[in-house]
Amino acid sequence: MDRHRRPVDTSLWSLRPEFDPGKEECKSGHEAETVVLLSISLVSSPGDGALCQAFFNAIIPDHHAEAFSPPRLAPSGCVDQLVEGLLGGLSRWDAEHFLFIAEHGYLYEHNFAFFPGFPLALLVGTELLRPLRGLLNQRSCLLISVASLNSLFSILAAVALHDLGCLVLHCPRQAFYAALLFCLSPANVFLAAGYSEALFAFLTFSSMGQLERGRGWISGLLFALATGVRSNGLVSVGFLLHSQCRGFFSSLVVSNPLRQFFKLVASVCLSFLTLSLPFALFQYYAYTQFCLSGSARSIREPLVQLAMDKGYRIAEGNEPPWCSWDLPLIYSYIQDVYWNVGFLRYYEFKQVPNFLLAAPVAILVSWATWTYVTTHPWLCLTLGLRRNKNSKTLEKSSLGFLSPQVFVYLVHAVSLLLFGGLCMHIQM
């Protein structure tokens, strides 16, 4: 026996096919180009997309709901009216919050339900339109930023998902189909409208791809940026923890266990700190605005009048009750009081249509979970961290959806399904 021969690693994660990240991340360049072209045609066509949404926005009356609708303070010219007619459909519902925050800042208490990452991106976009300020008011610049930036973020998200699929599935065709379904999803309306979904998807898919390449620091930074865009980015800490625990168990056979354990604890603490920092800073900013005297901003009279008419709380009013909590989190208070988010609160007879709307995704995730668990019971029992007892069985199905690397992504999907189904507005 050759003493220089490398010992065979029979661990679970060595069972995936030979894969060179530098050369074989995705052999199908044509399919990647197809994803880009399809994404462009679906979400960023400046002519057809604007005309279609303007046409349907004109012929279909808006639903008169008690949604946030602040007054327009800036004067509106002919060009502004044209922009509003073409792109105004992108500013409905929650998009009004993001546009308002980008234009006026966080003035009302319930605005703090929307994280600052996307409004900051819109402000950067409006700065690029500064030469047009003579023709366009601030809102028109923001609408153009929404249309252009979300088109760009949607394209980048589709490409990042295709790249991630190649890394995880080791099957370029399935990775292509995953990106294709992402582009064709009916939920793409949220990627085109003035919502933060497109930016969040791009950052999250990119951070997952970096983690699959072993670039933990870059991945953690991107995950932290995603948390600054949406609060559910905090859930992504599970990917970092699983990767660190997997590395810990893999290194036990060659390294000092005690040293590796302390290294694991330090990595876990750093991951929690990195991903929670944007959330913590945002909560602290809200605390300074509403709970500390002398920090309130001046608010224009029409916006003050809106707060009085609608019952919105501003910083100059009475101190809100969450300021006296042991852990004063405005986000938890807003979700509870303004959006009625809580355990089983959405389980009402009038919400049955929304449960039916969410049923296809719930059934798909449940079916995928059952298929994966029944195929890899040992993998699921050991959370993908221990060596497999029957490596031959796993080798036969190590490509595509049944790849061992899919495990942590499936856990992520199941966690979101359970939390969303029990505690959130189910159609979201």
Automatic annotation (TrEMBL):
Pfam families: Mannosyl_trans2 (PF04188). The chain crosses the membrane at residues 141-162, 174-205, 217-241, 261-287, 355-373, 406-426. Its EC number is 2.4.1.-. It is a multi-pass membrane protein. Keywords: Endoplasmic reticulum, Glycosyltransferase, GPI-anchor biosynthesis, Membrane, Transferase, Transmembrane, Transmembrane helix. Pathway: Glycolipid biosynthesis; glycosylphosphatidylinositol-anchor biosynthesis. The keyword Chloroplast does not apply. GO terms for biological process: GPI anchor biosynthetic process. It is found in: Endoplasmic reticulum membrane. GO terms for molecular function: alpha-1,6-mannosyltransferase activity; GPI mannosyltransferase activity. InterPro entries: PIG-V/Gpi18. GO terms for cellular component: endoplasmic reticulum membrane; mannosyltransferase complex. Belongs to the PIGV family. PANTHER family: GPI MANNOSYLTRANSFERASE 2. Mannosyltransferase involved in glycosylphosphatidylinositol-anchor biosynthesis. This is GPI mannosyltransferase 2. It comes from Heterocephalus glaber (Naked mole rat). The gene is Pigv.
